[in-house]
Each structure stands twice: as structure tokens, then as C-alpha cells.
Design a protein that fits this description.
Radius of gyration: 10 Å
Distance between the termini: 20 Å
Strand order of the largest sheet: 1-2-3-4
Structural class: mainly beta
Number of strands: 4
Length: 50
């Protein structure tokens, strides 16, 4: 696991984000991890708990 992933400082690519099945989806601009966001909540890596 990289230090970037461990610290959780993912930065979504807002220009490439899109709406998919009730969520905003994007990728981290640093490492390419898939990210997901519900309206009104913060971005998080896709598949992370909580």
C-alpha cells in the first residue's frame, strides 16, 4: 500500500467526474483510484467502508 493511499489524500478529477446511478464518480488525479460521492457528502475511494 502506498503512502498516498494510506493517508487517504485522494483528489478527484472534477472535470472528468460524471453522474452514475445516483452517485458522482471520478478518479484520483494522483493515483487513479476510482472515487465516489453522494450529493452533499465528501468524496471517498469507491468500495471503502463507511
Amino acid at each position: 500500500m502506498s503512502l498516498h493511499s494510506w493517508l487517504g489524500r485522494h483528489v478527484p478529477d472534477l472535470q472528468a467526474s460524471h453522474w452514475d446511478r445516483g452517485h458522482f464518480v471520478s478518479r484520483c488525479t494522483v493515483c487513479g483510484t476510482a472515487m465516489i460521492k453522494l450529493p452533499g457528502l465528501p468524496w471517498k475511494p469507491r468500495g471503502s467502508a463507511g
